[in-house]
Known about the structure:
The structure holds 2 protein chains of 2 kinds. Chain A is an all-alpha fold. Chain A is built from 7 helices and no strands. Chain A has 2 domains: 1-80, NADH-ubiquinone/plastoquinone oxidoreductase chain 6, subunit NuoJ (Four Helix Bundle (Hemerythrin (Met), subunit A), Up-down Bundle), CATH 1.20.120; 121-167. Helices cover 81% and strands 0% of the residues of chain A. In chain A, helix 1 (3-24) runs antiparallel to helix 2. The radius of gyration of chain A is 20 Å and the shape is globular. The mean pLDDT of chain A is 82. Chain B has one domain. Chain B contains 15 helices and no strands. Chain B has helices spanning 2-11, 13-47, 63-73, 84-100, 131-141, 143-152, 156-187, 192-197, 227-240, 252-255, 265-290, 308-324, 330-352, 354-383, 389-419. The N and C termini of chain B lie far apart (68 Å). At the A-B interface, helix 2 and helix 3 of A face helix 5, helix 6 and helix 7 of B.
Amino acid sequence: MTPVLLIFFVLAGLAVLGAVSLVLQKHPIHSALSLIVVMVCLAGLYLLMGAEFVAAVQIIVYGGAIMVLFIFVIMLLNAGEEERTDFSKIAKFAGLPLALALTAAIAAAVVKPDQSLHPVTEPVIAKATEQISTMLFKEFVYPFELTSFLILVAIIGALVLAQREKK
Amino acid sequence: MIEFLKTSVSQNAFWLITIVKIVLLLFIVLTVNAYLTWFERKAVAHIQSRWGPHRVGPHGLLQPAADGLKFLFKEDPTPAGVDRFVYYLAPLLALALSLTALAVIPFGPNPLPFKILGQDVYLWIMKSDIGLLILFSITALSVYGIALAGWASNSKYSLLGGLRSSAQMVSYELALTMSVVGVLLMANTFSLQEIIEKQARPDAHQWGFWGWNFFGWAHGGIPVPQIIGFICFFTSAIAETNRAPFDLPEAESELVAGFHTEYASFKFAMFFIAEYTAMITVSCLATILFFGGWHSVFPEAWSIPKYIPSATLIPFGLWVIYDGIKYENIFGKIILPAVGFVMFAIGGTLIALPTVNDFIQPIFWFTAKVFVFLFFYVWARGTLPRLRYDQLMNVGWKLLLPVSIANVILTAAVVLWRSHP
């Protein structure tokens, strides 16, 4: 087993464990912590694939900013332990089969020998950040700007809602 | 057996050297941490017309050791009703993250003058193309140590401290990142090594400090001084490290001790070490990004400034000997004169051996600049009053963020104009 494969299995295992614990934990803070573990492990997996920039952004944006806000809100509301209620009826019967079906579909897509999946090479890694920025600001500049506009609209919307509540 | 050891050592030389480097760096940084507390107490005391620690050892120099022993041997009670897992995790997280950040910091450009196990030994643990992003991602995560400590302690003061800290760090992270973008626009890279190299002009031998990003004259044409960028960077970095005047998470006049109220003994010390290590990291980062890293203040063509390390070490060594003999115990008889003599000898050796002197130059300048910023930290703590919470938020969102965005736009315009005049 090569070291890279070993690191992959450790990170992947931790990510899955974190995801399971996210669902099973009773306290919101513990769930949020599990989610942070998942995010950081995903960043490690990106790093393993040579996507340094994406890995760093994953930690800065998701692991840092967004999850800090989650934890901030949980702390501010002083949310206590959740009580287990009955699961929804659909989840009870259709949950497990649907989950299995999804796993099978993803596994089939991954296992299938596809031309588009090939290992990353050194020059790709060295220029990854440059390529991402060139693509973002040249080829995909309109979707990129539209997304930022969408986020701006969401921010203003949140502000308007918060102001209305105050009156 | 010996053959096997030899081959495995030479095959894994890189890993062995890296581990040794990590241990060495940890030792150095923890020692600097300890004496930073001494320096801070001394400096703040003198600002307030006091003596500061002066009983344990000459000039109170053994105070850090006494403090460390006290931290180790104090009772370590766990308060009732804490969330045990998170309560123990928080100080570990804070310490581990702040120490990890040191891995990407380059302390000098050249490898050691000799090879170890057939390998060049560079003065950094890890060279990465995204060094700066790694530092920012660690900063982004380091808020959890404090926020979780506040939450897990089951105390209202701790919780308030944790809440303040997470809000403060999220707000100031924006200004921190924005203020660095100007430097990135000029350097075109995230690699800390390359950012430093780009701050030397091609004709650096005549220019000295004008090439630093703070003055922004590294490329000819009109300069883009990052003075505004630096002020925004350092202000928000002080806020990110929770130091005075932005130390609201542990404001002792309001919150007892803030997020670490319920922590005692070594767990408290871990928060302390984390805070001081973060100070060192930020000072290194300010040096790297704005003040030319390991580049000398003087033009490289000048030969006299090369003797500045000797010129500081020799008189200081002599003074330590002179000051040491006054003590009528083991310090005066052996330790202080010996330390003074070693400093004197090192200073003399540097004059005698030009190769060693050339090797020491970048490290000397890097360390000197870092200590200037550490002094700024202490100075700010000794002289500035703590901000009120609404003032803190106003400064972060309404002053630092717009000003640093304006700095980005200005720098981008000049950089663009330079490439397409």
